[in-house]
Amino acid sequence: MGKSAKGFIPVMLTPFKNNGDIDYDILTQLTEIYLKAGSAGLFANCLSSEMFELEDEEKLQAVKHVIKVAGGAVPVVATGTFGGPISKQVEFVKKVSDTGADAVIIITSVLANEDEPDNLFNDRVFELLDKTGDIPLGFYECPVPYKRLLSPQQLVDFVATGRIIYHKDTCLDINQVKEKLKAGEANPAFGLYDAYMGHAVESLHAGAAGLSCIQGNFFPELIVWLCKNYADALLATEVNQVQHFLIDNMDVMHNVYPIVAKYWLSKRGLKISTITRRNVGVFYPAIRKQIESLYSNYDQLQNHIGIKNYL
To answer: What is the pLDDT, as a whole number, of residue 26?
Structure first.
């Protein structure tokens, strides 16, 4: 998960059947799409996976399935903390680790309430580290149930333990990202993956290990291309076009997500339903029209850059 090569780690969707059960056949195909596109890893059981709407056994089975399909081709990380006493969270971290996940992800907003101070949060992180043996861990500044950001110093201190190898950053502040990247000085195995595409190129130049964004559930091949070519002087014009494309289309991809991502993938040929367990709003015709426009614009960009469609 380190910084030797920039990479894209998708925040995986969970496909559902019409009856609401997980569609494992489509999950297999979706995992293969991420891999064929060149993903450097997979983040299973995350917010895009609708993890808070899955039963514990479903979480574990979905992670096991992704790991089996990946077959060791890339690392797989998966969330292991969902609130409650630290003892309960420790127990589930171990269960997720037992699936074969390469790292278990700590959701920052479930270790302390929004009004609780950082020193209490820090104590709980260190307690969880102490009680989970040598399991590799990571952080995700998930916006649900609320967004709790780590300060650069907190991240430095946690990474210095040697246990933290992954961080999905959602601070949206490139200066904060640059400060957080100093955490990697204590552990070469650590990688920061930026979720915010508004400064994707700048983050990669600053030393981020890669990108981990919802946009990769629309066009994983584009995010992989950006991670590989962001510093290529011969492709500077194209890199700039991609950066602006991601900025210009950010709002439409967040609207009633992940329904829109599933609809997009269905348009690209994956037989995935738009069924979600999360209540994210109504997929109005106006939103559908925006996605249709995005689809057309991406087709032009894809042809211009020469990126292969893996669906």
So the answer is: 98
The number of C-alpha atoms within 13 Å of 110 and in the hemisphere containing its C-beta is 21
Find, among 54, 33, 32, 59, the residue nearest to 44 by Cα: 59
- Are 74 and 42 contacting, i.e. CB atoms less than 8 angstroms apart? yes
Digit-coded pLDDT (tens) for 121-141: 999 999 999 999 999 999 999
The average pLDDT across 71-92 equals 97
The string of pLDDT tens digits covering residues 8-37 is 999 999 999 999 999 999 999 999 999 999
pTM equals 0.96
Q: What angle do CA 116, 117, 119 make, to 5 degrees?
A: 130
Report the C-alpha gap between 151 and 89 in whole angstroms.
23
Between the alpha carbon of residue 11 and those of residues 41, 193, 201, the distances in Å are: 10, 11, 19
Return the exposure string of 162-194: e unless at least 16 CB atoms fall within 10 Å of the residue's CB, then b: ebbbbbbbbbeebebbbbbbebbebbebbbbbb
Kindly give, in sequence order, each residue whose CB lies less than 8 Å from that of residue 87, ignoring residues fewer than 6 positions away.
131
Query: Which numeric CATH code is attached to 7-236?
Result: 3.20.20.70
How far apart are alpha carbons 231 and 50 in whole angstroms? 34
Mean of the per-residue pLDDT values for the chain? Answer: 96
In the chain the beta strands, taken as DSSP E runs, fall at 7-8, 42-44, 76-79, 103-107, 137-140, 164-169, 191-194, 210-211
Phi, psi of 245 (to 5 degrees): -60, -45
At 84 the pLDDT is 95
Tokens 């390469």 belong to 102
Count Cβ atoms below 10 Å from residue 17 Cβ, excluding itself. Answer: 13
pLDDT of residue 308: 78
Structure tokens at 114: 């929004």
